[in-house]
Specification:
The structure holds 2 protein chains of 2 kinds. By secondary structure, chain A is mainly α. Helices cover 71% and strands 0% of the residues of chain A. Chain A has helices spanning 3-6, 11-19, 26-41, 43-55, 60-85, 90-116, 133-155, 162-186, 201-208. The radius of gyration of chain A is 17 Å and the shape is globular. Chain B has 8 helices and no strands. Chain B has helices at residues 9-15, 17-27, 31-40, 66-91, 96-122, 140-161, 168-191, 208-215. In chain B, helix 4 runs antiparallel to helix 5, helix 4 (66-91) packs antiparallel against helix 6 (140-161) and helix 6 runs antiparallel to helix 7. The chains are: A mainly alpha, B mainly alpha. Chains A and B meet through helix 6, helix 7 and helix 8 of A and helix 5 and helix 7 of B.
Chain lengths: 213, 221
């Protein structure tokens, strides 16, 4: 970890991508980054980094599933809260109900799969969603769904088990469907690109970190 | 990865869309078999059917071995989707924002064709030929319904192949297309007032034989 990276603590996470090809486990690198960031920025900065490191402390499929579980927790909490907070009606209200149900089922399925593989599901973090009104809700929903799609697409090629890959595939398609439906509500393109981009775990976590308390 | 440069007689037959259609008609035509294939779900494409007259390849194998076969199978579906949207755009049935959506989706399918063709070549394979297609374009509603059917099927087709893909980069490419097909399907379902998630929280895969049988009526040679 050099000084240049420490100028922006989130680069500690980006740095992990470089370490992926080396022998160091990702969580080790993140923990080191977190502790270094803590030394400079104080304990408040460390929280998310440590949480992230714990989420990925198991390697392989369980690690990926726990990473996905964290995202599903976020989405599930977001839509659950939106049921009363977004003040939606009509089509949007039923869309929110549908998506909330789907995300909740994803949480359940991922938790079960992690247990079945002998892993320990990560605990649900506390979230804070800073938005106001329906347009604020839709904008954030779009970010979460698109990030979710890219997160699964980025993580899936590293999955070892065919069954886990199949499950991840069936979830990511549903996330993509949510993303398109939200985009239509938002008045934007349901399918802006011919190829959905893939995001690394580090970049995804950086994107959702501001919403984790 | 070893890819046969000289296709066998059977390969030639099965890579020719007309013959393939005949072959499918012979091997996949019975209701019982269709029901069995549907029941097999995503695994049906790797199953060598005992009923196919001995030696006939089913699923993605008829398009080539392993990942090349899967990519060529996907390419065939993308050709079909591209042709469909091109026909729909020309039909005069749509105007305004609906026409824009159709053009946009069509151009994305065309990009998929280009990418998959490039991938097949990169792996030393021979890209599957563009099938001749024909679609019933009666009115706007039936066309939208057909579009939704095709897109939902396309998304299920990619999902069905994902666990069989060997190469990580092929898998990454297939996934980045898969979710786009899912987006198209949801957008069309929304236009039709249908559920965006017809399978619920977990999308269902479809095997190659099942998918090919469904699109067979639109392939005319």
């Amino acid at each position: 970890m050099n000084d240049q990276n420490m100028a922006q603590p989130e680069l500690a996470a980006v740095h992990v991508e470089v370490a992926d090809s080396e022998d160091l486990s990702r969580s080790e690198v993140i923990l080191k980054g977190a502790l270094a960031a803590g030394a400079i920025y104080g304990a408040a900065m460390v929280g998310p980094f440590v949480g992230r490191a714990l989420a990925m402390s198991e390697s392989g499929d369980v690690g990926i599933l726990n990473f996905a579980l964290t995202l599903e927790y976020l989405e599930s909490a977001f839509y659950k809260e939106a049921k009363s907070r977004a003040k939606a009606s009509g089509d949007l209200k039923s869309l929110i109900d549908t998506i909330a149900r789907d995300e909740d089922e994803h949480v359940g399925a991922l938790t079960e799969t992690i247990k079945k593989l002998g892993g320990k599901p990560v605990a649900e973090p506390k979230f804070d969603f800073p938005y106001s009104g329906m347009s604020g809700f839709l904008k954030l929903a779009q970010t979460f769904e698109d990030t979710g799609v890219s997160a699964y697409n980025g993580a899936a090629p590293q999955i070892k088990s065919k069954e886990v890959l199949e499950a991840a595939g069936s979830i990511v398609q549903v996330e993509a469907r949510h993303a398109a439906a939200i985009a239509l509500q938002n008045g934007s393109e349901p399918s802006p690109l011919a190829f959905d981009p893939a995001l690394s775990e580090a970049k995804v976590l950086k994107a959702v970190e501001p919403f984790i308390q | 990865m070893a890819v046969a440069n000289e296709p066998s007689a059977l390969d030639r037959v099965t890579s020719d869309p007309v013959s393939r259609r005949k072959l499918l008609a012979v091997t996949g035509g019975s209701t019982a078999l269709a029901a069995f294939l549907a029941a097999c779900g995503s695994d049906s494409d790797t199953t060598t059917m005992a009923t196919n007259g001995g030696g006939g390849k089913t699923g993605t194998e008829q398009f080539g071995k392993g990942d090349v076969g899967i990519l060529n199978y996907a390419l065939t579906l993308e050709y079909l989707e591209t042709a469909f949207y091109a026909d729909v755009a020309k039909s005069g049935l749509f105007k305004g924002s609906d026409l824009e959506t159709i053009r946009k989706f069509g151009s994305e399918e065309a990009e998929h064709v280009t990418a998959l063709t490039g991938f097949v070549k990169q792996m030393g394979g021979k890209p599957a030929p563009k099938p001749k297609t024909e679609f019933p374009l009666k009115n706007a509603k039936s066309v939208l319904e057909l579009a939704a059917t095709v897109e939902n099927l396309g998304a299920a087709a990619y999902l069905g192949q994902a666990p069989h893909i060997k190469g990580a980069s092929v898998l990454a490419a297939a996934l980045s297309i898969h979710s786009v097909e899912g987006r198209h399907a949801a957008a069309l379902n929304t236009l039709l007032g249908k559920s965006i998630v017809p399978d619920g929280a977990f999308a269902k895969p479809a095997g190659a034989n099942e998918v090919l049988k469904s699109v067979e009526p639109f392939i005319v040679g």
